[in-house]
Structures are given as structure tokens and as C-alpha cells.
Amino acid sequence: MDWVWFLEVPDYGFARQVLQRGTAALFFIAFLSSFNQFPALLGEHGLLPVPRYVERSRDYGRPSLFRWRYSDRLLRLVCAAGMVLALLLVAGLPQLGPPWVPLLLFLALWLLYMSVVNVGQTFYGFGWEMLLLELGFTVAFLGSEQVPPPRTILLLLLWLLFRLEFGAGMIKIRGGSEWRDLTALYYHHETQPMPGPLSRQAHLLPKPLHRMEVLGNHFAQLVVPFFLFAPQPLASAAAGIIIFTQLWLVGSGNFAWLNWSAIVLAFGAVSDPVLRAVFGLPAPGSPAPAAGLQSPLWWTAVVLAVTLLLLVLSYRPLRNLLSSGQLMNASFNRWQLVNTYGAFGTVTKHRVEVVVEGTLDADPDGTGGWREYGFKGKPGELRRLPRQWAPYHLRLDWLMWFLPLRTIHEPWFYAFLHKLLDADPATLRLLRLDPFDGARPRWVRARTFLYRFANRAEFRENGERWVRMELYEAIPPLSLPRSRS
Questions:
Q1: Would you say the pTM of this structure is higher than 0.90?
Q2: Partners of 451 in the beta sheet?
């Protein structure tokens, strides 16, 4: 039985702790975000109501509890249950029992959140949704402190990180020329979907530094991921580089839990001996090494069966990575396991913002009565410092960024404008500022502006962080029928 040494790696106890607790923390944030926003966006009276969607999509093949029944109360119960289970795992309590205990809890998180994602429509059409689902499923098979971490599951988690990083790197090289001529970061900090408090300072860095940023990104995404599978300490060094670059992305923007997922995954390559050598940390949660297989035979059989399943499912994502027609953020099965990832194959050169306004005036042609609605995350007021929201996900704000890039005439956006005309309390809670304090405006409209960060001289002159120029009126004034106004 000497071959069984390959199945267990007792020297990765700290890695398992971070993977399990970090993934559970991300699930908590995802369920919290849904608890707060889903009813207003997709609930019974939301912008894209789930009951109507399910009724139209009876043949929709992806699994969800809400295919049979949806209510806002049931949605909140699902989210609350998910948050409770996630907190238990963050605290490490299930990990103290047999390996099947954390297994069942992580699979419950996976199934509950999949139920939410699969009816979330465009508001849940982000790559980090399927990333969290795949991460949660795979981490479920790391076991508990009663068994050593299984090597094959750790390798599969590194394979997930490899697809995330290398896939993003390849989508850039195959994408816009700005990534190949090293100019992408001339624009990205300014035009990214939701800038953070440090984004303007990052944008104002000298252009040679931006070119170095792009080179560093290519190195971190196209070269470093291969070293995740190298012997120690090279694997831990590769993980450290990925963690550093992801923390830079965390500090310079808001990408929900995408960057934090990569950070959590990177710890899967960090061994306890390296941690002890570098930081003097103990190796928690691992049985002492001993001869022979330490895990129960049934658990080893489960791990090997899941390993085989995920390896078989890896065929199409591997082909996609090597394909010139590489897909970005695509799932090849209804359970959203072993997906393909990637982001920002091209970088937007100019930032166009949709500004939503309302007025109490009876005549919409008046120029003095229009007031602007304030959003929590997306740019609006010129003096306001962008906030740090990630890993929390502001779904409405993110969808607002896509409007000028696709079409402003989205059904959900017209539904949003009608909710503003109704002064719908749930919708208004998604915003930072209602200029009418709960009163119903007579008219609403949408205008587009070209935004750019103010340079240092402009900021010193007037204290404004943004400079904007009006482009056009995208949606002319709308009002409710007279009988309702």
C-alpha cells in the first residue's frame, strides 16, 4: 500500500482551513447580497419577476428549487439558511466532526445558491457566480480535521485556479490590441465597471508604470499558474505572486468576490512547512503523518469518484483554453462544474454613464426641476469618492455599466424607471439617494454623459473627482398614465 501516500497530504492543513473557511465566507456574502437585493430585482414584484420567468421557461434544464414554487419569503428563507450554514463553516465547527459533515454542508450551500443563480437571469449572469458554485462543490470534498487533506482535491482546486488565471490571460492576449501593446491600463482604472476609492490614484500613475502593470499581469496570468503544480517552495511562491496581484486588484476596483475567490484558491498551493519557515506558523487541523492510508476507505472511495468525475468534465474546458475561439465565463453542464473563465478581453476606452433623473414638475420641458438619483456604487456625483464594496456585489450598479455598451433599451431598465415613477420602496432601497424622499416624481428620464477622472490640477481647483460632458438624452421623459399619476 505504499502508493497511498499520493492520496493524502497532511502538510496542507492550513491550506484546507483557508479554503474551507474562506469559501464559506464568500457564500455568506453571496447569500447576504441576494437576501438584500433579490426581491427588488427579481422577486414577485421585481424588475424581472422570477414567477413570470419560470412560467415562460418550463423547459429550462438547470436545477433550482424555485422552478416549482417561488415567493419572496421562500427566497429569504433560502438565503438565511445559506448564511447560517456558511457561518458554521467559517467558525470551523462542522470540520471538527467526521468528513461527511462539512461535505453535506458545502453541498447544501452549492445547491441552495445554484437555486438562486439559475433563476437570477441577467442580474446573476456574472462569471463569479459559477466560480463560487464550482469552488463550493470542490471544497466540499476536502474532508474534516479527522482526515488528512486529499491530494487529488487540492490539485483540482489548483486546476480551477489555473483555469481562472490562465483563461483570463489568454482571453486578453487573444482579445484587444491594448493588451498586446501594453496600453490597457491607460484606460482600465477609469473605465472599469465600479471604481474604488484608490482607482483614481491608480489611473493617474505615470504611463510607464501602467505598461509595467500590464506586463506584470501577463506574467501573473500566463506564466505563474504553471508553477502552482511545481514542487515546494515554488508552488507557494507562485501562490504568493497570485495573492499579491489579486490584492492589487482588490485595492483598485470592485469586482465582487472574483479576486477574493482567487486569493482563497491560491492558498491551496501553500504548504505548512513553507508557512512555518516564512512566518513561524503552526500547522493546524492535520493528523500527524503515519504509515499507510489514514482516511476511512469509504471516504477515499468518495474522493476518488469525485476526482474522476471532475477530470472527465475537464475535457471541454481544456479544449476551450487551447481554442482560438475561446469562450469566456461559460459552463458546459447544467450543474456548473469545471467551467471556463476569463474577463476583460478588451478594455473600454471611454466611460459612458447613464444618469437617471426625475422631476415633480407637470411640464417635463422645464429645465430647473430635474433631480438626479444617486447610486451606491456607480459614478454619479462629481465630488463623491468611490466606495469600496467588494466582495459585496451591487447588482443594479453593475448592470447600469453595461447599458451603454449593449443597449439602454433593456426590459429591466424600463421596469426600473417605472418603479421610480411609483416610488417603489424596495427599488428605492437599492439606491443611495432618492431626491424626492419617497414622493412620486411626475416624470423620469435617462441621459448619458462621458465621464473621466479629474487630473490633480482640476481636483485642486474645485474638489471634483470626476469631469463629465453630456452626450445625449437616451430615454426621453416618461410618466405614468394620468389615472395613476
A1: yes
A2: 351, 468
C-alpha cell of 281? Answer: 506558523
- C-alpha span between 461 and 131 (Å, rounded): 44
Residue 19 contacts residue 266 (beta carbons within 8 Å): no
Contacts 24+ apart (CB under 8 A), 447-450: 447/354, 447/355, 447/357, 447/471, 447/472, 447/473, 447/474, 448/352, 448/353, 448/354, 448/355, 448/404, 448/408, 448/472, 448/473, 448/474, 449/352, 449/353, 449/355, 450/350, 450/351, 450/352
Burial class (CB in 10 A: 0-12, 13-18, 19+), 291: exposed
Q: Which residues of the chain have pLDDT under 70?
A: 1-5, 58-61, 281-293, 482-485
What is the full DSSP assignment across 418-478?
HHHHTT-HHHHTTEEE-TTTTPPPSEEEEEEEEEEE--HHHHHHH--SEEEEEEEEEEEEE
Q: How far is the C-alpha of 204 from the C-alpha of 50, rounded, in Å? A: 43
CA distance 140 to 158: 15
φ/ψ of 473, rounded to 5, equals -85, 110
d(CA 202, CA 350): 16
Q: Which residues pair with 467 in a beta bridge?
A: 452
Q: Roughly how many angstroms between the first and final C-alpha of the chain, as a whole number? A: 79
Q: How far is 236 from 226, CA to CA, in rounded Å? A: 12
Cell numbers found for residue 94: 462542522
Instruction: Give the C-alpha separation, 240 to 234, whole Å.
Output: 10
Q: Supply the pLDDT for residue 56.
A: 85
In order, the DSSP letters of 303-363 are HHHHHHHHHHHTHHHHHHHH-TT--SSB-SSTT--S-B----SS--SSEEEEEEEEE--S-
